[in-house]
Structure formats: structure tokens, C-alpha cells
């Protein structure tokens, strides 16, 4: 890859980290237990009234997030790596208006024990456009605020 290509990929990659007041097992569980996931999934003000999680490598997942204005946002993917409680990797694609799946990205989460807290790092790549990466940064940042509050 050329330097320009690498820079373009980096610009379309999102990396976020948060320190959570929980064990890696608890934080990992927040991603795979539907009873916990619905408490923080989606930006502030959004709810998640529908979700299906087949938590196994090759298993599918789907959620429906509803905005405060009532618009529904469908997203789905497939679990690629489940290494409890250290690492979780899955694909991500929004359902388009015509019912097809949009551009697919990969989300990789790592959970590092920090002696009483957990450093959670998420890398989502490669977005089709920098604008999509930026939109996800806002959504994940808001969601992660809810996740941090869950363990406060």
C-alpha cells in the first residue's frame, strides 16, 4: 500500500477508548447479554426495543434503535471472534431503505484489565467515507457515555 492509501484508510477508521469501573468480564458481558445491552445501546435518547443476538462465532446479531423522534434504525452483523473476556469482533451494516445491507465495517473490541477497572478499546473500519466515520464517532461516543454511567 502507498502512503496515500494508508492515510485514506486511517481517515476512515474510528478508534475510541474508555475506562470503565468494572471487570473485563462485566464489560464484555455488556456487549453480549441482551438484558444489559438494551440499557446503553444507541445514542442518548435512543431506545433498543428489538434485538437478537446469536453470540457465537459465525452467529448473527441485529438491533433496532429508535430515535426520540420515532425513526427506526436497523443494524446487523455477524460475530467473527469471541474471546471472552479479552476480545470481541463483529461486522456492522445498516439496513437501507430498500431492505438491503449497506456498506459493511468491522468492529473490534478489546478489554484490558487495569487492576479494578477495564480499558475498553474499539476500532471500527473501514468506512466508505470519512463523513460516515465521523457520524459513528458521535453515536458511539454518546452510547459509551451511557455504558460508563452503567458501571459508575
TrEMBL record:
Taxonomy, superkingdom: Bacteria
Residue ranges constituting the Activator of Hsp90 ATPase homologue 1/2-like C-terminal domain according to the UniProt record: 21-151
Family: Belongs to the AHA1 family.
Protein's recorded name: SRPBCC domain-containing protein
